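Task: encode each sequence below as structure tokens.

Item 1
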Amino acid sequence: MSTLTATRGDPVAQPGGEPGGEPDDRWLWSRLAEADGTALTALYRRHCDAVHNFAFRRTASWAAAEDVVQATFTAVWRRARTGSVDPLRAETARAVLLVMAGQECANVARTARRQRLLRGRIEADAGGAVSADHAASTAARVDDERQMSEVRRALQRIPAVQREAIELVVWSHCSLAEAADALGVSVGTVKSRLHRARRSLTDVIEIDALEEDLS
């Protein structure tokens, strides 16, 4: 990602956390608030996989998920450069980054749909000549996306605030406290939303199967 590779900040010289250990998220986040590109890179390496998995489950598109990762960390860096990074209250930045990723998903999904249409036209014009390995890989990705689309359709039947709770706690294994902090609500509210979501989803999909698909 060009934003990460091109930015430079002061070296990370005073890591938080345990002595001799890796810098903790709170310390990295405070450095990020000072527009430290090194802290951004460390946060990216630590959380990019979680953001990617979250984005795939939200968009049901691997291509869109990759773009969401880029857009999310670009937005984080933009906030850092403008001095608008809010303090991190939780132990980890994961839930905050996932909420930001959720905000990027709609725009990226629209762009990805246009790109897929363009690629389809190009491949059709080229006669559809592709290697066997590429065809198998593409088929696997399409199968993943089809299965996730089915899950997404089930989730669309519940309110957005309940979906957010499922996405953060069930999908991404955030604690109730992390989810509450990222969403700006109480822990009790997150619990209530999860309870209502689980009760609603049992009418349209087996909750055990849902959690297995989203694990």
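Item 2
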Amino acid sequence: MARNMVEVSAVPKEDLGDLVGLWVAAKVDAGVPLEVATRFANDGRFESAIQRADVNAHLARIDGRPVGYVLTSENPFGLNPEPEVAVEQLYVDPTARRHGVARSLLCAVVGHAERSGSDVIVSNVPTQSREAHRFFARLGFSSVVVRRVVSTTQLRRRLAPQGSAINTAVDQLIRRRRSLRSIGTRAS
């Protein structure tokens, strides 16, 4: 059986419809409810991020149907004096996986990196995605750093002095909630 040809092209900033549709599908695939993903897409933040000068998007199509995308940014941390391209998101529709779509998208990233003078391509891979880790490792990507993420409120709480009134009140509230949950689960 012959493979269908994967066509990859840059997404024009004024034509984001197919990209937004795939982005919503990627969010749903990652476990975000459809209503929430749609609301994120409709509130304009995604389109605003895509419009930034340092962000590039490429779309893959098979037989004219959009099946995947890659979003990249340049110098994601801004501290490296050398140009750097980061793969922020790479998504392939589950029905089109194992057809060379991701590889074709990464070829477009390599071309972009070469044109921008970047010697390094960085990929942000979710920690829970074993398949993505294996894919990037097979292509030669190696772990350099681990990015850790924390919510602002959680860090604020952890940074508060141990005996502070805020910390004590929050701890009491958490203990009370846990106690109520355990009572509720025992009653069920």
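Check on item 2: The chain has a mean pLDDT of 84. The longest strand covers residues 65-74.
End of task.
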